[in-house]
Amino acid sequence: MTAEASAIRRQTVKPRSVKAYERLRAPFSLRCGALLIDYILVASVLAFGTLVSRMLGGGARTAGASSETVGVLIAVSVAVLDLGVLPGLTGITLGKWATGLRIEQKDGSPINIGRALLRHFVGYPLSFVTFGIGFAISAFSSRGRTLHDLIANTVVVREGPVLPQRPR
User: Fold this and answer.
1) For a surface tag, which of 19, 94, 97, 148 has the fewest beta carbons within 10 Å of its beta carbon?
2) 85 lies in a domain?
3) How far is CA 90 from the centre of its chain?
4) Torsion sign, CA atoms 14, 16, 21, 24
5) pLDDT tens sequence across 30-65
6) Measuring CA to CA, which residue among 73, 79, 83, 78 is closest to residue 52?
7) Count of domains in the chain?
8) Phi-psi bin for 103: left (phi > 0), alpha (psi -120 to 50), beta?
9) CA-CA distance, 104 to 92, in Å (whole number)?
10) Does residue 168 lie in a domain region?
């Protein structure tokens, strides 16, 4: 094989599998949709628990109060699992999975449970307390990072197929 043929062969783009991904900035609208899905999940568990508690409560106030407490504990557990443990282990919440987004550290490495808990249970409330400005930062920053992303040193990316590079 000549030197010219081997140089051309090195420049030829090899086809990649469908599972190859690249980091793409997550659009603000998809991030809002993922957040909405996550909060609908938690709110529906809480609403279902309240409904069951009201049906069980009837005339006995103590039975309703204890079943309502169980409903709240289940909703808190679902929130911790969906917003802390699941993204800490996989990088996605159920809402992010549904919208094709993933949470990772700024350098591209996976996040851990502690960072996910910091992001969702410290960063999100701070983003809400600032009257939503913490979320709106995403629409105007070049990397699409929000206040809770800055606090936890994370970035939300959209997964998509790697496009072939042109030979130079």
Assistant:
1) 19
2) yes
3) 10
4) positive
5) 988 999 999 999 999 989 888 887 787 654 455 556
6) 73
7) 1
8) beta
9) 9
10) no
